[in-house]
Amino acid sequence: xxxxxxxxxxxxxxxxxxxxxxxxxxxxxxxxxxxxxxxxxxxxxxxxxxxxxxxxxxxxxxxxxxxxxxxxxxxxxxxxxxxxxxxxxx
Length: 90
Fold this sequence. Notes:
31% of the residues lie in helices and 36% in strands. By secondary structure, the chain is an alpha+beta fold. It has one domain (2-88): CO dehydrogenase flavoprotein, C-terminal domain (Enolase-like, domain 1).
């Protein structure tokens, strides 16, 4: 299993951090954290759960499915996608 992590400072000074474990192209565990707000609050947990067990190649598509389900204050879905691409070299 390979542990990967990345931090991004987004516009407005907020911080986004993603920690993940990847094995054979499959996301085994992922934590999305930082000093931002998300509504509904449980939506970030739902996103993490959907990404667990997903292939790296499908991760961006899964995140995009949450575009209309989560309202972020301090960052955007695109910030999450950008950081994940950077971490995974996509």
